[in-house]
Amino acid sequence: MQDFKVEQLNDSTFDLVVENNQFVTESSFRTAFNYQLFINKRADKNLVSTPRERGGWMGDLITKPDYQSGSYIYTKHQARNTQNDKNDIAAYTKKSLEYFLDFGAKEIIVIVNDNNINGEIKVDNDTTLKYNSLWRGV
To answer: Does residue 1 have a pLDDT over 70?
Structure first.
C-alpha cells in the first residue's frame, strides 16, 4: 500500500514530507494507520447522546457507501479506566484497523494495557508492522 511519508519535527509534531513540490510516498501503513485510529468515527445516539459530539469525517460522504473512517476511541476520553473501558477501546481500535485487511494485511493485533494501546499489522509471513504507545494514558 502506498502511503504518505511523515516525519517527526524538532518540536515533536509530525508533518507530511514534501520534496520538489510533491508529497513523498512510501510503501507502508503508517499514515493510514494513525488516520484510521484517530479520526472520530460518527457515533450513533446509543454511544454519544449529544449530536454535535458524535464526531464523523465529512470525507465519508464521498467514500464507498455505508463506510465510515476512524474509530470510536474518542468516546472513552472521559472513561474511568475500568477493564470494560479497556475492552471497548481494544475492540474499537481493532475494528478501525480492519480497514487494512482490504489492502492485503493478514492479521490485526491490538493490545490495550493500563498505559497505552499497541497495535500490529501482520502484512505477510515475513513482515509485521508494530505501532507502540499509540495512545498514552488509556
So the answer is: no
Residue 58 belongs to some domain of the structure? yes
The per-residue pLDDT for 63 is 76
pLDDT of residue 15 exceeding 50 = yes
Q: Is residue 137 assigned to a domain? A: no
Instruction: Provide the residue range defining the domain that includes 23.
Output: 2-131
- Mean pLDDT score across all residues of the chain: 83
Nearest to 6 by CA among 104, 131, 109, 110: 131
Is 14 contained in some domain? yes
**Domain count within the chain:** 1
**Structure confidence at residue 7 (pLDDT):** 82
